[in-house]
Each structure stands twice: as structure tokens, then as C-alpha cells.
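WARN no homologs supplied; continuing
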Amino acid sequence: MQDFLSKWGEAAYTSAGFFWMALWAFILGYVISSCIQIFVTEKRMERTMGKDESKSLLLGTFFGFISSSCSFSALASTKSLFKKGASFSSSIAFLLASTNLVIELGILIAIFLGWQFVVGEYIGGILLILISWILIRLINPHKLIKKARERLDEKDEDDEDSEKSWKKKIKSETSWAKVSKQYAMEWKMVWKDVTLGFTVAGVVAAFVPDSFFQTLFINTGDGNTDFGFFTILEHIIVGPIAAFLTFIGSMGNIPLAALLFGKGVSFAGVMAFIFSDLVVFPVLRINAKYYGWKMSLFILFLLFTALIGTSLLLHYGFNLFNLLPDPSSVKITNAEHFKIDYTFWLNMIFLAISGVLIYLGFFKRKDVMHMKEMAPKSQLLETSLKYIAFVCYLWLAGGLIAKFFL
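OK structure emitted
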């Protein structure tokens, strides 16, 4: 019993420590994302992207880079851009960029995994887009694309504020109140995933033995970093399967990715795990609701194939230049998380910024309304995740009591 209580306390402490490490990064990323989404409207994106394929692909990538990292927001924005006439290739580029090239994800990866993974994330995001574009050109699914366009609803909602220039908006208190509402919406979209992801990471760190990972990811453990091609390929395939089963979004998956790397999973396998947020079942279901099941399965095939190719290219490319990271450099399970250091002061600063935004949007300017289109979520899944998140909070509270008072 004492052994269980000790592990429970360690699991809860690790989960809380992971979140404390990442808190300022979440706040910074979502503040930046909220500002961009208010000051750069989707309608302006639609007009700018135009019809030219190469220009549209580049702009889709750029607009994805400056947008939200939330998969559900990205899916809704992608649908809107595609409906307004953006090419299928540029729409996929936007979707991939908005979930792999965003600023907040890079900051989080830097905290947990180091600069090689940040470089891998951004180069990998570009490779995902290029491989997807090549596959689309080779396969040329014009009938699927035509049917998907016909399926989409032609209704459109105008934003009365969309024609204002960003220079005027940035001086407006109303616009900043909308930034506050968008910031709260960003947290509302991810809090369940983040809670579950960080809790699972702590549980895995404390309770799951290394032998489990050595069985799941072949030839890992004992400090082995010399992987053959088929071992790397197995890691790349198993990584997305693990992500598929967890249903956790990209931001919540990063501490799990760090644990996987620390347990000996290859660089390629960890990158595949991080890239997998668009090949999970909720995304498959939403795409089917938008475009039909045939197109949804084609997108799944497209992204999964691009993911495998990208992970292989990253692994062997980094290996060629002797840049593969060392698993021993990732030590996050035995760290002293709560101390007065730069993380503490950054958290204090960004919590204060959060407080200012919440005061402006929800107390001073309660009259300002702001809503952003989101992809349709499964009510059953969302309700289940909500109650699971509450169970996670009880688990964390009990574990911290066990660690410090028992």
C-alpha cells in the first residue's frame, strides 16, 4: 500500500510539475494566437489566397503558421477556406501548418524536448505539406474534391468588423476585449485535453515500467540508439497508433512525447507521435461530416503517408549531419519543478497578463461579443472528456496529499 501511495504521489507531483513548466508557454502562445485571429481576419485570408496554386499553397502555409494550434479550430477554418475557393492543396497546407508550425507548439517542444525537436517540428511541418502536395498532384482526386465542394453548405456569415485595418483594430479597446474572449476560448478548447495529457504523462512516468515501452517500440531500452530501418519504421507506425488511442491533442501530447524519448523511442518515432494529432478518430469523424467519408479516408491516407515519409526523412537527415538528440539529455521525471527560477518569474508575468485580459473582456467590457466557428465535436466524447478531466483533478489532489501529508 505504501508503495502505491508513493507512486501515486510521484505521479501527481510529476503531472503538476509538467504543467508548471509549460504554463507560461501556453499563455504566451494563446495570447499571440488570439491577437492574430482578431487582427488578421479569415475573410482577409480568403481574399489574399486567390486562385493561383503555388501562391495559394505558400499563403495557406503562412496563414496556418500564424493561426491557432487547436485542431478543432483548424478544421473549421480549413473548411471555410476550401468552401470559399481555396484549392484542396492549399487547404491541406493550411491545416497542416496550423497544427504543426504554430508558435506555441514550438515553445512547448523546446521546454520538454530541446532544440533538435523544435527544428524537426518546423522542418517536418514543411515536409508534411510538400509530400501531401506531391501526393495530391500524383493521385489527382478531382472527383472527390468536386463532391466535397458540392457537399459543403454555401451559407456565410459576415463579420461587420472584418473590413477594418489591423492598425485601427489594435488601437481599439473593443478589439482587445475580443482578444480576451478569444484567449478564453483557446483555453476552453484545450483544457480537457491538456488536463488528461499531463495527468497521463505523470501516471506513465510513475507506474508504467520500461519493459512496456520495450515491447511496444521494438529494440528500445538499455541505452540503444542504433536502430535499423525496419525498427525505425515500426516506431513511426506505432507512434500514431499510440496517439490515436489517447485522443489527446498536440499540446497535451508533448510531455508524453518527452517520456517516450526518455524511454528510448527513436527520434523518428517521437516525431511521428507529435505529428499524429490529425490522424485521430475525432478528426476523421469531423472531416467525414464536412466532406463525406470517402474524402475523410483519403485525407487520413494522405496525412498518414506524409507523416511516415516526413519522419523517415527527418531521422536520416538529422543522422546525416550528426544532429540526432541524445535521449539522456531529456530528464524531466526527477526534476525539481517548483523552485524560484526563470520558470517561476515567467509564470508570474504571464499569469498577470492573463489577469489583465480576463478583467478587460469579462468585467470591464462584458458587452463585447465574439464567437469563432469551431468544428462540430462529438457531444458524447466531450462530455466523457469533461468528467474524465474532473476525475484527473481528484487524482492529482489525492496524489499531492499522499506525497506531502501521508
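The chain has 18 helices and no strands.
OK
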